[in-house]
Design goal:
By secondary structure, the chain is mainly alpha-helical. About 50% of the residues lie in helices and about 10% in strands.
Length: about 325
């Protein structure tokens, strides 16, 4: 939201030359492909060629603002920013942590948390127990609001599972207080709802529509019924009407429970876009995720299928 507000405030300064990219954990080759496709520059045979034509484009078109949202791969992002450090481009990178040198870091914290207050009065007594985490408090509040559990029972569950213990975590997405709330919900979800969470925890593209989610989760019945508790308990987010995703912390908590074959995402979205090319813009991040999958596996046939779709976007 802050990046969007910044873009709005600086729109006149950059004469409207403002671009937004969702980047995630993709490699350097995928990132340069995204830029080349968006700006209509030559994609070439290599990342080096793409960088060269992009530099020329930036030099020719003047200052612009580029937002790289949801940065996850430090090496790929560092390489990208360094490649264009001499170009008239201001990059804004959003992330919950930054392990990059040569950039300015502006930490953002929830304002009430800094004052020791809670934005969720219904579960106020759990505020310290949940480490003032807005995400954990939001999920806990929704569990109590739905009358699925009382505040006391939820607090007792968290204590019994060791929420107050001091432990080492794997990384910034590994928050035990959120993982314990996910565990509470997981025990009470149907198999169909669980499978939907697993799919959302492994997908590398952005938000998914309910139809794709149901297909990949093998929910043959009423998808809305399987989604209902996930929405009611705020385990899923709906950034666009009818399309779903997970917060990265919830994603990590679910992902540790079940694996999922990434080739299934590739097959689903590439086949979908081959049948319905008019959905390319809507499903663009899934296409880039398919490209990244093809790069990782080194499958020539997979690369050629993605390349055919990219040509349609290029045209």
């Amino acid at each position: 939201m802050l990046a969007a507000a910044l873009g709005h405030r600086l729109s006149r300064f950059f004469a409207g030359r403002i671009e937004w990219f969702r980047v995630g954990a993709w490699d350097f080759a995928t990132l340069t492909e995204m830029l080349a496709l968006r700006f209509g520059t030559a994609r070439g045979e290599s990342s080096l060629e793409r960088v060269g034509t992009l530099r020329q484009f930036f030099a020719r078109t003047g200052p612009r603002l580029v937002v790289l949202d949801n940065h996850e791969d430090d090496r790929a992002t560092a390489r990208l920013l360094d490649a264009f450090r001499e170009s008239p481009v201001t990059f804004v990178v959003t992330a919950r942590r930054c392990l990059l040198a040569g950039v300015l870091v502006f930490p953002v914290t929830a304002p009430l948390a800094t004052l020791g207050q809670s934005a969720f009065p219904r579960v106020k007594v759990l505020t310290r127990k949940l480490r003032f985490s807005p995400l954990a408090l939001d999920i806990a509040d929704s569990l109590v609001l739905s009358r699925a559990v009382s505040v006391k029972a939820l607090g007792d569950f968290l204590e019994a599972r060791g929420v107050s213990r001091v432990v080492a975590v794997e990384h910034e997405d590994d928050l035990p207080e959120v993982a314990l709330l996910v565990e509470w919900a997981w025990q009470r979800l149907s198999p169909e709802s669980r499978r939907m969470l697993v799919v959302l925890s492994h997908v590398e593209g952005d938000h998914m529509d309910a139809a794709s989610l149901a297909t990949l989760a093998k929910v043959s019945g009423n998808a809305a019924r399987a989604l209902a508790p996930l929405e009611r308990w705020h385990l899923v987010q709906e950034p666009v009407a009818g399309r779903y995703t997970l917060h990265a912390v919830v994603r990590h908590a679910v992902r540790r429970r079940k694996s999922f074959d990434p080739a299934r995402f590739y097959q689903h979205y590439v086949s979908l876009l081959e049948r319905e090319p008019e959905r390319l813009l809507l499903e663009q991040t899934h296409l880039f995720a398919a490209m990244d999958h093809a790069h990782r596996t080194g499958s020539l046939s997979d690369m050629l299928r993605v390349e055919a779709l990219l040509r349609d976007m290029d045209g």
